[in-house]
Amino acid sequence: MINLAAIPSPSQGVWHLGPVPLRAYALCIILGVIVAIWLGNRRWIARGGRAGTVVDIAVWAVPFGLIGARLYHVATDYELYFGPGRSPMRAFAVWEGGLGVWGAIAFGALGGWIACRRRGIPLPAMADAVAPGIAIAQGIGRWGNWFNQELFGAPTSLPWGLRIDPAHRPDGYGQYATFHPTFLYEFLWTFGVAGLVIWADRRFKLGHGRAFALYVAGYTLGRGWIEYLRIDDVNHILGLRLNLWTSLVVFLLAVAYLLISALLRPGREEVVEPAAEVVADAADTDPEAGTPEVGAESGTKQDAESVPQDRPPAEVAEHPATGGETGHPRRPS
Q: In angstroms, rounded to a whole number, what is the distance separating the alpha carbons of residues 164 and 123?
């Protein structure tokens, strides 16, 4: 029986602009990154940061995240690339799909930490600002799985089932035509998580990385049941998919961080971001000084105290009409 209300799959996921292939998978990821940077920049400015800083952080975090995502996928599904009859060079074929979100978060955080340290700003505050955008970016990126007809769920006759072409159906599922659209489930879930983080951040003034931890906990909670629906061939541990175990462990760690952080460091930290030129000057004048201390004021009292005190006082001019003091240095005639 054909489900006429089922979601169709795209007939192709690659278009060619002359010799240049335009891959839907890559375009979805790029669009997600753009949205994440835009939203993260707005939230960072609202926290007291400078415009454009999120872009500078993304220059480090995004490449690190993509590398980590691919490494996680290859490491956990190594049998797809190594062994008899396999081509190890396909491990570099990112355009064919295969990015692990856990590697993206871990390596992206590493890249973000390096960039934040270079700018002299606290990583937890930056992570809180970009957390909802990351969730939305993940949801947008999942549409790449729709174009590639991959990572769908078990067969279903529900009206919103996803039609999969016979060439993309796993072994043993050739007789089924519609499957759970797990890409759509995750898309909707991540947007819900982003909304939850934004609401909770406004309501409870989350700080010190707790907004990011809430995003991680919310995402892994949904990823657990979505992962349970999928039927793609992956490694199992004690009868459960590896990514499901990962979701469980990361969820518990995120909840633990939320509770412990709220007890040890309640409230939200104040973001005082030093100007980029201040950070550069500090590194140039004193290489051993390292990164300026987070939270140090820039251009205010700290700069005033650095002015030499043995400078002679400015000569006070008299007002030309009253003879009173103007408070301005006398101009040379």
A: 42
What is the Cα–Cα distance from 235 to 200, expressed in whole angstroms?
A: 36
CB 24 within 8 A of CB 97: no
What is the SS3 assignment for 273?
A: coil
Q: At what angle do helices 53-76 and 123-141 cross, to 10 degrees?
A: 60
Domain membership flag for residue 228: yes
Q: Count up the domains in the chain and report the number.
A: 1
Exposed e or buried b per residue across 93-127, where buried means at least 16 C-beta atoms within 10 angstroms of its C-beta: ebeebbbbbbbbbbbbbbbbbebbebbbbbbbbbb
Q: How far apart are CA 117 and CA 41, in angstroms?
A: 18
324-328 LR contacts (CB < 8 Å, sep 24+): none
CB 42 within 8 A of CB 124: no
Domain residues for 208?
A: 14-264
DSSP 8-state secondary structure symbol assigned to residue 291: S
The answer to whether residue 291 sits within a structural domain is no
pLDDT digits (tens, 9 = 90+) for 111-144: 999 999 999 999 999 999 999 999 999 999 999 9
Residue type for position 204:
F
pLDDT tens digits, 57-81:
999 999 999 999 999 888 888 888 8
Say if 160 falls within a structural domain.
yes
Tokens of 98: 């295969």
The more confident residue out of 29 and 90 is 29
